Amino acid sequence: MAYAVRSRRTTAVLAALSLGILALTACDGDAEKDKAGPSATAIPSSAGSDKDSGTPSATGPGDDGSAGEGPSGSGGSTAPPAQPGSDDDQDGGVGMCETTDLSYSVTVASKPVNHALLTAANKGGDACLLAANDLVITIPGLDGAAGNMGPDGKDWILEAGEKAYAGILFSRADTEGGKSADKVEIALTASESPATVPIGGGPVTVNDMQVTCFFGTAEDALTY
After folding, report:
1. Is the pTM of this model over 0.70?
2. 146 by DSSP, 3-state: which?
3. d(CA 148, CA 142)
């Protein structure tokens, strides 16, 4: 009877030991799985990422169409510098008309009274820019220049052989006295030496003389 009890106890101890061993084995297996888990996860390699991007990380010269660019980024070819404009480059390269570039005639007009028509023609072979409002008219032996009358004009290009016109008022009808003159002096600007021109149909009496700007027609020049 005592032997049977010891046998049962022995069997129970062995069974408990077996269960403990099985539990430890199961725990070790789970731990091994936990350790093996991260190693089984796919890690993208650098070679794979380069393959997916399809382009190298550093762009070689010329890959983006900018090969040969210098420091200015102008594609290697430097545009030529703009040429400085000359002093007479005031209207597409046409220089200013000078007094000696034109020929002149002055003729007494039938009307208005005491008026004369100044005709200026470009006698050169090239066009020039005519200063419309700087005309200077004087009488030899008299001080002072003619005053301005009429509207201001605009400088315009006078082609070779083309003419411009201005009206000269020698004296007003309501003024008395004056000096007789048969010549006028003409300069396109005050800084130039004048040309002396005879007055066709003269002499005329000069008193409070005035002059218009240059016009394109004789009719406009004699309006004022």
Report:
1. no
2. coil
3. 17
